């Protein structure tokens, strides 16, 4: 099938490349000229494991190509996928300007029937808005080539995006009343061989399903973080509690890790946008607000522990701290809303300096923070420790997981603040390291 994908970010590019890999013909459109120029050369502008090889392979097989011309994109695919960003607006609701721009672009030049498939995460009712925009542009043009709007939210995880797309848990398809999902069955047939993963529903339910999934996952994290804070006060170890509750098959072990808060481009904005949707439909979403509040509080938790260790915020001024992990999670360079950023900014406000290392997010950190004198990016994790007062860990990259006590001696004092509970507090103590983690009662 011929497919056009608008947006070549984490979702659009992975979608395009994976569809091409199974034999579809794909044209990707983006308004970012620099990105398209790099993609045309076979370069991947983001870090996503496996993506570069797959891209190169499909570019040379002639199954995927790139353009900045929306018109070319509209002329190409029977299926027009929208995978552009939906960042938060000032009031927390999803900003739909990019989605609506693409809808207008499609309507502005389509000549024959088109399926307009929305992959971006959008509030309930967006498909309706897309439909109206397309209708009004077509009316102005005085043409009626026919079209259908389909909701097809994406559930891939950054860091495992290729596997998630190739072997999805489910493929959600929302169709208008009276329409079937035959075209989507055909599109996704290569990903749907093992068992039928395609779930067809009405459009509003499909749109809400995406928010429900992210809000549920965020809720699990905030619940565990709240429990961790209780554990700290009552002298319990949240890691023991986690194992204890995970063994209950109704609860399970997935996604119940306490830590320094959730970040990334999805959970924070989607929890807020869902709360906004609830409010504008007349329902006060108490749980969703609490999930967000617990998270905002948790993101500053390591900083508070640091302040209390040193005897106040003022004491941090002029000191240097080492940071391991800048990305919001391992296997990605994405730093959008990352917990590291909350603490970096608090440290700078307090007059401290930071020496940081991340296996892949260094360029992204440079792009965000520029060359500030109080932010040094080091070439390896070891040199981040030199002359630093303490180590702060924000991302559970695999190469941080074994405590290397020789390396930790490069710190001025063996002092670690671990936002991901990577180490065994007993082992740290035995090796003379003062160790703060999240919810591990004995250290507080
Ligand atoms: P992104 O910011 O990485 O990429 C968006 C891309 O769209 C950018 O390259 C931008 O230049 C491009 N764009 C903007 N306007 C355009 C236009 N008019 N025509 C063509 N391209 C245009 O975003 P992302 O992380 O890929 O997310 C896209 C959507 O998917 C969002 O709604 C997000 O919530 C959702 N989503 C993201 C993830 C994830 O893990 N990142 C997972 C599932 C769903």
Ordered list of secondary-structure elements with their pairings:
Layout: E1 2-6, H1 10-21, E2 25-29, H2 33-40, H3 51-60, E3 64-67, H4 70-76, E4 79-82, H5 97-109, E5 114-118, H6 126-141, E6 147-151, H7 161-166, E7 171-175, H8 182-188, E8 198-202, H9 203-234, H10 238-246, H11 267-280, H12 286-299, H13 301-310, E9 320-324, H14 339-349, E10 353-357, H15 362-369, E11 375-377, E12 391-393, H16 405-408, E13 415-418, H17 425-430, E14 434-436
Parallel strand pairs: 1-2, 1-4, 2-3, 4-5, 5-6, 7-8, 9-10, 9-12, 10-11, 12-13, 13-14
Helix pairs in contact: 1-3, 4-5, 5-6, 9-11, 9-12, 11-12
The structure holds nicotinamide-adenine-dinucleotide (NAD).
Nicotinamide-adenine-dinucleotide is lined by residues 6-12, 29-32, 35, 83-86, 98, 101-102, 120-121, 154, 156, 158, 265-266.
Summarize the structure.
This protein has 17 helices and 14 strands.
Q: In total, how many beta strands?
A: 14
Radius of gyration: 24 Å
Structural class of the helices, strands and pairings? alpha/beta
CATH architecture descriptor text of the largest domain: 3-Layer(aba) Sandwich
How would you sum up the global shape? globular
């Amino acid at each position: 099938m011929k497919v056009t994908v608008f947006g070549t970010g984490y979702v659009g590019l992975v979608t395009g490349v994976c569809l091409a890999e199974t034999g579809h013909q794909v044209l990707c459109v983006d308004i970012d000229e620099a990105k398209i120029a790099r993609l045309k050369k076979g370069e991947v502008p983001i870090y996503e494991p496996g993506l570069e090889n797959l891209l190169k392979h499909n570019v040379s097989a002639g199954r995927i190509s790139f353009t900045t011309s929306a018109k070319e994109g509209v002329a190409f695919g029977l299926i027009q996928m929208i995978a552009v960003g939906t960042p938060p607006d000032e009031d927390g609701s999803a900003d739909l300007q990019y989605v609506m721009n693409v809808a207008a672009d499609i309507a502005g030049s389509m000549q024959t029937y088109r399926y307009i498939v929305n992959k971006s995460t959008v509030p309930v009712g967006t498909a309706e808005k897309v439909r109206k925009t397309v209708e009004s542009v077509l009316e102005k043009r005085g043409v009626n080539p026919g079209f259908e709007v389909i909701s097809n939210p994406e559930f891939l995880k950054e860091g495992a995006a290729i596997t998630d797309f190739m072997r999805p848990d489910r493929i959600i398809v929302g169709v208008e009343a009276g329409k079937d999902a035959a075209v989507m069955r055909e599109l996704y047939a290569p990903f749907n061989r093992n068992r039928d993963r395609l779930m067809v529903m009405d459009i509003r339910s499909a749109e809400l399903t995406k928010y429900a999934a992210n809000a549920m996952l965020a809720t699990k994290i905030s619940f565990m973080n709240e429990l961790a804070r209780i554990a700290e006060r009552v002298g319990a170890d949240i890691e023991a509690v986690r194992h204890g509750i995970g063994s209950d098959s109704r609860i399970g072990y997935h996604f119940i890790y306490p830590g320094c808060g959730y970040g990334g481009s999805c959970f924070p904005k989607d929890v807020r946008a869902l709360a906004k949707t609830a409010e504008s439909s007349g329902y006060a979403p108490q749980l969703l607000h609490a999930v967000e509040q617990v998270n905002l509080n948790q993101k500053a938790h390591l900083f508070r522990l640091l302040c209390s260790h040193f005897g106040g915020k003022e004491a941090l001024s002029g000191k240097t701290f080492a940071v391991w992990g800048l990305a919001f999670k391992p296997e990605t360079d994405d730093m959008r809303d990352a917990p590291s950023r909350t603490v970096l900014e608090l440290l700078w406000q307090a007059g401290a300096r930071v020496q940081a290392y991340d296996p892949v997010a260094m360029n992204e950190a440079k792009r965000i923070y520029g060359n500030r004198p109080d932010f040094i990016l080091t070439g390896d994790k070891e040199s981040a420790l030199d002359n630093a007062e303490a180590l702060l860990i924000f991302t559970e990259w695999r190469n941080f997981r074994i405590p290397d006590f020789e390396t930790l001696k490069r710190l001025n004092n063996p002092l670690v603040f671990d936002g991901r509970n990577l180490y065994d507090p007993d082992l740290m103590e035995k090796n003379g390291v003062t160790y703060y983690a999240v919810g591990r009662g004995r250290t507080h």
